[in-house]
Amino acid sequence: MGKGIVGAGILKIITESLYDKPIVVFREYVQNAADSFFKSMNCGIVKDDLFCKIWHENECLFFLDNGNGIIEDQFQEEMRHIAYSQKKRTLNIGYKGIGRLSGISYCERLIFVNVVSYEEEKYQEYVIECQKYNELKKQDDYSELGFEELMDQIGTYYDQDTCSDVKKISRLLFRYKEILKKRNRGFLVILERISPVLRQTVSDKGLITDLSWLLPVSFKKQMYEMKNKEKELFRELSQPNEENIIPAAGFHITYNDISLERPIDKSMLRDYTCKFDLEYATGFLTFRGDKIQIEKGNDFYGIRMYIDNMLLCDETELIPMLLKYGLIEHTTNELIQTVRGIGAMIYITDKVNISSNARRTFIEITDGDALIFLEKTAILVEKIYKTRYCLSKYSSGKKNLEADNQKLNELKNAANAALEDLAEEEIVLPVEDNEERKSFSDLPDTEKKQMIKKKLTKEINEQIKLYLLQVTSFDFDHALEDFKIWLKSI
Question: What's phi and psi for 363, nearest 5 deg?
Answer without folding.
Answer: -105, 135
